[in-house]
Each structure stands twice: as C-alpha cells, then as structure tokens.
Amino acid sequence: MAKLYLSLPSQPGEEYPNGGEEQYWIGKIADSLEAALSDSGVKPFRIPASPEENRLIQAANQGESCLYLTLCSQTAPPDTAGQRKGSDVCYREQSASEKAAAELFAARLKEIYPQPELAGTRPLSDTEPMGEQEPPMLFIKLAYRDNPQDEAWLVNSTWEIGEKLAQAAAEVLGLPIDHA
Q: Does residue 57 contact residue 47 with C-beta atoms inside 8 Å?
C-alpha cells in the first residue's frame, strides 16, 4: 500500500481575518483529502511538526511508494499584505521527480482556483529548508490568508481542495482514484 505523509500547521494562533485558525482550516482540507483517498490504495498518515518528524520520514522511505506533503496557507510580506493571491506548490529545485509531482498538484489546483493563472509551482533552493530525505516532498501553500478573496476561497472550498489534492497524490503514486 502506498503511503501519504501529511504535515499540517501545528502551532495555534495563525488567525484567519474572518474567523478560525490555520490549524482548523488546513485540517478540514486534510480531512477531505483523506476521505477522498479512502478507496484508492493510499494510506494517509498525519505527521506532527516536531523533532520526531525526520525519523518518521526516514521510516517512510522503507520499501513502499510514498509521498510527503506539507500543507499550509501563507501571508504576504508587510509591504504587500492583503494584496497577493495564489497557490504555490514548492519543490526542491534539484529534484526532477518533485518538479513533475508539483506540476500535477498545481494542475489540479488550477481546476478549482478562481484565478488559475495564480496557481503554480515554485522551486526552493538549497538554502530553503525542505529536508534531506528521499521520498518526494512538496510544500503546498494553498492561499494567502491575509487576502480576503483567497481566505474566502480556502474556507469555502475545503472539500474541493482536498479532493483535488487527493487526485494529484494518487496520480503521483500511480494509483487509480475516482475523479467525480
């Protein structure tokens, strides 16, 4: 069975302007993702962001195909606060397999993001932390929580976002999934 390791926001306090916290809303998306994967042959695991995380990722590398996703929202720098929109699927620039996986995830997000041209991929250089482990690892910044339109899209689309992420995960892992 293929494995999907999910790392979600673990620290409370990242408030959304119209209610709720990042932990809650990203957790709702993860719930939807897990439900959509229920019959696909992918076993999802939630990994807490902790020192234990690296050990768990290394264990994930043993034998079965796996994928590691970090899901979050983001804020713009202070000089552009509330003005930026879009989804970024980030991958390690030295990894061709992660780039291909990131493109699949971005393509699925473009299907539901209100301005598809603002959903895309972004390479992370060696100076940005992603980890040294071998399973494909993606850092998905779903929306700008300080932008009212992005926040509204995220909180009103948790189920659809989760389904599209599940479709992409199944595709990356080479497994069938219902695209309903």
A: yes
Alpha carbons within 13 angstroms on the beta-carbon side of residue 81 total: 4
pLDDT per 10-residue tile (average), the chain, 180 residues: 89 82 94 91 80 57 78 95 96 92 98 97 72 74 96 97 96 76
pTM of the model: 0.88
Contact 33, 44 (CB under 8 A): yes
pLDDT at 59: 57
Among 61, 98, 87, smallest CA distance to 172 is for: 98
Q: What are phi and psi of 85, to 5 degrees?
A: -140, 160
- Assess contact for 155 and 25: CB atoms under 8 A: yes
* Residue 56, SS3 per DSSP: helix
Domains and CATH numbers, the chain: 2-73+83-172 (3.40.630.40)
